[in-house]
Amino acid sequence: MQDDPLGFLIGDCSRLLRRRFDARARALGVSRAQWQVLVALSRQEGTNQAGLAEYLEVETITLCRMVDRLQEAGLVERRPDPADRRAWKLYLTEPAGPLLDQLRQLGGALVEEALNGISPSLRESLYDGLAALRNNLSARGPATLPDAPLQERA
């Protein structure tokens, strides 16, 4: 077994990937948070702000500010929700498509850089293991507490 706990190792890799992605995305004039909104919206176009905020696990007001900036940049548009006059549905604009393509290429190149020197079979195992971790953690079961206090498990 390795010295670093798995959660710390995953967290460190995630932090480093985010930092490198942010630096590269800035050259395109987009933050990682804005990229996340654009990608989520490409998967759920026509959703409302509350639903998108829940999906991204951010406060509605935080998402509203991000959407404001994306709308000012001409990448997102708000359309009235015919079922609820108080709500807006969100859609990508035509210029968002090429930007999303650039960001996906940037992300793909960064992942390739991160996986440099890792064999194809180990890459496949890594993806399979992380997918299984995600599925296990995504399961909607009741939260359980450990049987013993932390000091007793050490």
Automatic annotation (TrEMBL):
Asked if the Swiss-Prot or TrEMBL record annotates the protein with the keyword Iron, the reply is: no
- Return one Gene Ontology term, BP aspect: response to stress
What sequence ranges are listed for the domain HTH marR-type?
A: 3-135
Among Pfam families, the record links this protein to: MarR_2
The record lists the membrane-crossing segments as none
Q: Which UniProt keywords apply?
A: DNA-binding, Transcription, Transcription regulation
Q: Which GO terms describe its molecular function?
A: DNA binding; DNA-binding transcription factor activity
Keyword Transcription in the entry? The reply is yes
Q: Which InterPro entries match?
A: HTH_MarR-typ, MarR/SlyA-like, WH-like_DNA-bd_sf, WH_DNA-bd_sf
Q: Which domain of life is it from?
A: Bacteria
List, alphabetically, the SMART domains matched. Answer: HTH_MARR (SM00347)
Q: Supply the name of the protein.
A: MarR family transcriptional regulator
Instruction: Give the species.
Output: Glacieibacterium arshaanense
Organism placement in taxonomy: Bacteria, Pseudomonadati, Pseudomonadota, Alphaproteobacteria, Sphingomonadales
